[in-house]
């Protein structure tokens, strides 16, 4: 894992934006895995301002709530179109988000896996992390080999996401999420985490044992996993001095 600690969310976002922008410039038909939540918002804004050419880019979102109409302000369809897609020149047919309103959820989960394969796999998968270590909506105790499927949210996640819905009871209990096995097949994984409420999940993911109790800890087994943190999210890391040392001493030829 490459741990990149920056002084604030702005500079950490800048590093992540450079990684994604370089990928799109070098490989115009790149396949990106995208995330929702408050963490990647600044990154999407930065990418919009970079005026990149998204015309050949394909995207696959990690997850979606079940039963929310697409136009609901908290559906991830709505989130992605409002915060990224409608501001860039991506083609609608190249955008993929699990359909939480499908009649046959298990069928569309299988189809989603096939679509990712048919696109040639995901080049860079962007991830946030839940305060309990979830990635996508793979809650603690999710199978580390799981594929795209339905999940029931934990009470903690319903509580965390209540701020978007106004009322905890309005947070849907069920979601579709790419599995941990699906995420691990991406060629590169880029996780962002900001703020003290992520510090425990981050230290467990980066320095704890690999365990389904913290699904993000599986990234220790990924050959190209980068983690961009602000100071607060990094504040519990035991080896933070070492991570800073490594980053500051990167040979120029070895890009981020
Ligand atoms: C949500 C999303 C995750 C996201 C996480 C953290 O439930 N499904 O993909 O990473 O929670 O969200 P936030 O960035 O708002 O803290």
Please tag this protein with its features.
single chain, 256 residues, alpha/beta, Rossmann fold, seven-stranded parallel sheet, three-stranded antiparallel sheet, 8 helices, 32% helix, globular, binds 2-amino-2-deoxy-6-O-phosphono-alpha-D-glucopyranose
Q: Please state the second-level CATH architecture.
A: 3-Layer(aba) Sandwich
- Give the radius of gyration: 17 Å
Which cofactors or ions or other ligands sit in this model? 2-amino-2-deoxy-6-O-phosphono-alpha-D-glucopyranose
The CATH topology annotation reads as: Rossmann fold
Question: pLDDT below 50 for ≥5 consecutive residues: which ranges?
Answer: none
Identify the strand order in the major beta sheet: 1-10-9-6-2-3-5
Q: How many discrete domains?
A: 1
Overall body shape = globular
Number of helices: 8
Q: Layout of helices and strands, plus pairs?
A:
Layout: E1 2-6, H1 9-26, E2 31-34, H2 41-49, E3 58-61, E4 63-65, H3 76-83, E5 95-96, H4 105-118, E6 124-127, E7 149-152, H5 155-165, E8 174-177, H6 180-184, E9 188-193, H7 199-207, E10 225-230, H8 240-248
Parallel strand pairs: 1-10, 2-3, 2-6, 3-5, 6-9, 9-10
Antiparallel strand pairs: 4-8, 7-8
2-amino-2-deoxy-6-O-phosphono-alpha-D-glucopyranose is lined by residues 35-39, 62-63, 128-130, 136-137, 157, 161.
Report on the structure:
- With 256 residues, the protein is α/β, with parallel strands linked by helices.
- Helix content is 32%, strand content 16%.
- It has eight helices and ten strands.
- Strands 1-10-9-6-2-3-5 form a seven-stranded parallel β-sheet, sandwiched between helices.
- Strand 9, helix 7 and strand 10 (225-230) form a beta-alpha-beta unit.
- Helix 1 packs across helix 2 (41-49).
- The longest helix is centred in the N-terminal third of the chain and has 18 residues, at 9-26.
- The radius of gyration is 17 Å and the shape is globular.
- The relative contact order is 0.18.
- The model has no long low-confidence stretch (mean pLDDT 97).
- The protein binds 2-amino-2-deoxy-6-O-phosphono-alpha-D-glucopyranose.
- The site of 2-amino-2-deoxy-6-O-phosphono-alpha-D-glucopyranose (GLP) has 14 residues, from helix 5.
């Amino acid at each position: 894992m490459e741990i990149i600690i920056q002084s604030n969310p702005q500079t950490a976002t800048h590093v992540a934006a450079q990684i994604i922008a370089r990928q799109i410039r070098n490989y115009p038909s790149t396949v990106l895995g995208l995330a929702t939540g408050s963490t990647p918002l600044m990154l999407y804004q930065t990418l919009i301002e970079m005026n990149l050419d998204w015309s050949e880019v394909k995207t696959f979102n990690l997850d979606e709530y079940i039963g929310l109409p697409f136009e609901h302000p908290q559906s991830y369809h709505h989130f992605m179109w409002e915060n990224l897609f409608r501001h860039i020149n991506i083609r609608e047919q190249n955008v993929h988000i699990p359909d939480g309103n499908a009649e046959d959820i298990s069928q569309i989960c299988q189809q989603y896996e096939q679509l990712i394969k048919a696109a040639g796999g995901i080049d860079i998968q962007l991830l946030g992390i839940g305060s309990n270590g979830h990635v996508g909506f793979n809650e603690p105790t999710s199978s580390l080999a799981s594929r795209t499927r339905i999940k029931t949210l934990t009470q903690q996640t319903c509580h965390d996401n209540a701020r978007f819905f106004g009322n905890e009871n309005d947070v849907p209990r069920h979601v579709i999420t790419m599995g941990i096995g699906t995420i691990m097949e991406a060629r590169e994984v880029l996780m962002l985490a900001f703020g003290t409420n992520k510090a425990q999940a981050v230290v467990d993911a980066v320095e704890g044992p690999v365990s389904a109790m913290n699904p993000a800890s599986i990234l220790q087994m990924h050959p190209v996993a980068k983690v961009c943190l602000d100071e607060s999210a990094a504040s519990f890391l035991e080896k933070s001095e070492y991570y800073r040392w490594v980053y500051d001493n990167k040979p120029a030829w070895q890009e981020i």
